[in-house]
Design a protein that fits this description.
The chain is mainly alpha-helical. Strands 1-2 form a two-stranded antiparallel ribbon. It is rod-shaped, with a radius of gyration of 38 Å. The mean pLDDT is 88.
């Protein structure tokens, strides 16, 4: 059997050329994309850890503020009463009287939990009849 050295050499050369081309056009871009993805995941993981730490810090601060507010409840309500009185004076309803209403809970008509007050005045207010099927809006 006779060996064709030119064909063997061409096959070896083609094989190495194929490896170089695959490395340049396929392997290198895939490895680069994988590295970029790995870096992006690491960055996002770091940002999430930082955000989690921030949320934890803010939660601690809010719980502390809530505790402080609960401890000062009587003082805060006294300040609120004085503020309401000042508003009633500015609205010119303080001297003749006014009605102060707050909505608390679902049955009180409160849809979003928060504290607020309604000052009704400037006219003679009457009381509606409170019955189980009465609409509270029709009572005032």
């Amino acid at each position: 059997m006779l060996l064709d050295w030119f064909t063997i050499f061409a096959q070896i050369l083609n094989f190495f050329l194929l490896i170089v081309l695959l490395k340049f056009f396929l392997y290198k871009p895939i490895v680069g994309a994988m590295q970029e993805r790995k870096e992006r995941v690491e960055n996002e993981t770091r940002e999430l850890r930082e955000a989690r730490a921030d949320v934890s810090r803010v939660k601690t601060e809010l719980l502390s503020m809530r505790t402080d507010l609960e401890n000062r409840e009587a003082e805060v309500m006294a300040e609120m009463s004085n503020f309401i009185k000042d508003v009633a004076k500015k609205l010119s309803v303080y001297e003749n009287g006014y009605r102060l209403i707050t909505n608390i809970g679902n049955d009180g008509g409160q849809e979003v939990p928060h504290i607020h007050f309604h000052i009704l005045g400037g006219t003679k207010l009457s009381w509606g009849k409170a019955t189980a099927d009465a609409n509270p809006k029709d009572m005032f």
